[in-house]
Write a structure and sequence with these properties.
Elements: H1 7-13, E1 25-29, E2 32-35, E3 40-43, H2 46-49, H3 58-68, H4 81-92, E4 98-102, H5 105-123, E5 130-134, H6 143-148, H7 152-155, E6 165-168, H8 173-179, E7 184-189, E8 192-193, E9 199-200, H9 203-215, E10 219-223, E11 247-250, E12 261-265, H10 267-270, H11 286-299, H12 302-326, E13 329-335, E14 338-343, H13 351-360, E15 363-364, E16 366-367, E17 372-375, H14 383-402
Parallel strand pairs: 3-15, 5-6, 5-7, 7-10, 10-11
Antiparallel strand pairs: 1-2, 2-3, 4-12, 8-9, 11-12, 13-14, 14-17, 16-17
Helix pairs in contact: 3-11, 4-11, 12-14, 13-14
Pyridoxal-5'-phosphate (PLP) binds near residues 138, 140 and 251.
Amino acid sequence: MTTKITRELFDKVILPVYAPAQFIPVKGQGSRVWDQHGEDYIDFAGGIAVNALGHCHPRLVKALQEQSEKLWHVSNVFTNEPALTLAQKLIDNTFADRVFFANSGAEANEAAFKLARYYATEKYSPYKTKIISFYQSFHGRTFFTVSVGGQAKYSDGFGPKPADIVHVPFNNLDAVKAIIDDHTCAVVLEPVQGEGGLTSATPEFLHGVRELCDQYKALLIFDEVQCGMGRTGSLFTYQQYGITPDILTSAKALGGGFPISAMLTTNEIASVMHPGVHGTTYGGNPLACAVGCEAFDIINSPEVLEGVQQRRAIFIEKLEEINDQFKVFREYRGKGLLLGAELQPQFHDKARDFLNVATEFKVMILNAGTNVLRFTPSLIISENEIQEGMMRFAKAVEKVVNA
Ligand SMILES: Cc1ncc(COP(=O)(O)O)c(C=O)c1O
């Protein structure tokens, strides 16, 4: 007997840690997705900032098909050509000299935090272990990464947390000054806080944190899992600020939808590591890296990167039109196509309602917390797709407002 695959089945067979929409997507092309009944949706969610080139980009499909006929997996007991090629591309286009591949954002961050502690304890002192992080930050769901992340709702309830992690308000340099000391091994931040509500770091804050890290010999770690790989209009967001981190993590758009992540660092910091200190079976998997190489070449082109600001402008123009009618948004946040629309106070706590009703009108959006709607579409979404999606979204807004 074959099981009928329905949304109800999810509630029976999957661990109840998600509450997915009521339809099941079965096919995607560009910024359009179809469900089991052939209904089409405009995708402004992009798989939470993952599908930077939309669904089933022909060049990514070709790269995956070609690699799938050559070599799938060898483990890190052997290296492979796609991993080395992708590492070289990342190095050629960033501050970094060394790359560690993993499979998710959380794993890249786990590696980053372990590296920062290892470097500080090897090089300076076994007591140099303090990690400074920020409220509202998000770095993944492993126990170390939820503990470094600044949202108790993700980290509480699992027993004793890793020690020596402190949280201070984001964009508040005085708060960092007050807590940073010789025992600090790292300051960790997202240049644009994603899950926490699309708050961009101010240039003064980032420059100030960089100086403090230098002064106290602490490493500066940028989590660009969500805001990197073209999403804000440059390959990585730090490149818009005129400073460099010591460690950077990337995931999501790095594989254009195929799971892969990377931690980037310098030769000096990497020099403390040696075989056996850290690792993961699938890191640098040839399939993931082959797709990653193709995604990298497409995203890291003037055409795609310059298109990001143009598309943001169209999104904001359309949101403004909706706002003129319904007065729902207070301000627009984030950078590039990591775009947030903060709701007016009377709609606070209702972000999820907008998201649910949007799916009724066949458009996929996201929230970031309870007060901000989030749009993380394909970086190459067409103007027509934006127009059509926004027409659908306007109807959803009307329904929520009149509910
Ligand atoms: C900034 C940031 N870091 C880390 C993560 C965790 O990535 P993953 O879910 O791939 O483990 C996310 C996911 O949303 C993120 O936005």
